[in-house]
Write a structure and sequence with these properties.
GO terms for molecular function: rRNA (guanine-N7-)-methyltransferase activity. The chain contains seven helices and seven strands; from the N terminus they run αααβαβαββαβαββ. It is of the alpha/beta class.
Length: 220
């Protein structure tokens, strides 16, 4: 490992630790391998507007890892996955969790499939489709315990498009920037806000929140 790579790994491990996430060197190395792929494919596929590697490490990798302590066990569906954030970092850290990534853009899904193969992520599947018309495979006929989205649509749009895909007692985990007061006010009465978790991402210098939603009928 060269000096630059070692410094990136140290920054990643230290930053994750500040958020309560214990990264092994092997996990850190695989996350950086993913970053290599994202940079390479981004030149042709425009997967992300963030192109400077130090910014990608903070705004993409650490930002994605910030939600790890707040996710319960269960199969996970990520909507509007784009370049694979937070899905691929989650798949690297949690190989025991089945993760499905869905995006409408075929070239982005081609990247996700290539990344999963290159990184050996056997727990990750990527699908090119419109989420509102997608029929999940038989193993997920009962729905997903967690539905995540990062930099996606409004909360109500997310819920409306995916409610049929949520397992009983499941929940939505929406990654947002500033506190989304207007979006929360627009939520239908059959959806409850279960938690609003401020996320402190090291070196980011911007607000981040994780919004946990669940059907009103399931629980309190």
């Amino acid at each position: 490992m060269n000096a630059d790579r070692a410094a990136e790994s140290a920054q990643l491990i230290a930053g994750a630790a500040k958020m309560g996430v214990a990264l092994t060197e092997a996990q850190s190395d695989k996350l950086l391998d993913y970053l290599d792929l994202l940079q390479k494919w981004n030149k042709a596929y425009n997967l992300t507007a963030v192109r400077e590697r130090p910014a990608m490490l903070t705004q993409h990798l650490l930002d994605s890892l910030s939600i790890v302590p707040h996710l319960p066990p269960g199969d996970l569906l990520d909507v509007g996955s784009g370049g694979g954030l937070p899905g691929i970092p989650l798949a690297i850290l949690q190989p025991e969790r089945s993760i499905t990534l869905v995006d409408t853009v075929g070239k982005k899904v081609a990247f996700l499939k290539q990344a999963a193969m290159t990184l050996g992520l056997k727990n990750l599947q990527a699908v090119s489709t419109r989420i509102e018309s997608w029929l999940p495979p038989a193993e997920h006929a009962g729905g997903f315990a967690l539905i995540t989205a990062r930099a996606y649509a409004t909360l109500q749009t997310l819920v409306g498009q995916t409610q049929r895909l949520l397992a009983p007692n499941g929940g939505w985990y929406a990654m947002k920037g500033v506190f989304p007061a207007a979006e929360m006010a627009e939520l239908a009465s059959d959806v409850s806000v279960r938690a609003v978790i401020p996320l402190d991402v090291p070196d980011l210098g911007a607000e981040r929140h994780l919004i946990l939603l669940a059907p009103t009928s399931s629980g309190s």
